[in-house]
Write a structure and sequence with these properties.
single chain; Alpha-Beta Plaits; mRNA binding; SF3B6_RRM; alpha+beta; two-stranded antiparallel sheet
């Protein structure tokens, strides 16, 4: 505990550093025990979530108890070779993760806003070209 307190006083971390790491390029058949073995060397882990759906296979989230442990793991494991695959380890950023919104979703959101504010979508459409 005293070591963690001493580390927090030694310097400031960049703003993107946090306790949650996003890991890409994992082997599809990696187990949670293997993940704990690899990432647990750098500190106490609160949670590991491995992607199992078609879109999330090969990815995982690793949550550390301490932000300095997460930074050390990110620094040491970026480019680490696991089963002939080089890991890509990034800090989780809520602003960019999971924002795969399609055109259909955006159009639906626009229609809801138009209805809410009483705006007719047609009046703001581009005028037809004159021939």
């Amino acid at each position: 505990m005293a070591a963690a307190a001493a580390r927090s006083k030694t310097g400031r971390l960049p703003p993107e550093v946090n306790r949650v790491l996003f890991v890409r390029n994992l082997p599809f058949n990696i187990s949670s025990d293997e993940m704990y073995d690899i990432f647990g060397k750098y500190g106490a882990i609160r949670q590991i979530r491995i992607g199992t759906a078609k879109e999330t296979r090969g990815t995982a989230y690793v949550v550390y108890d301490d932000i300095y442990d997460a930074k050390t793991a990110c620094d040491h494991l970026s480019g680490f070779n696991v089963a002939n695959r080089y890991l890509i380890v990034l800090y989780y950023r809520a602003s960019t993760m999971g924002k795969k919104v399609g055109l259909k979703d955006k159009e639906d959101e626009l229609r809801k806003m138009q209805t809410k504010h009483g705006v007719d979508g047609e009046q703001h459409a581009r005028p037809a070209k004159k021939e």
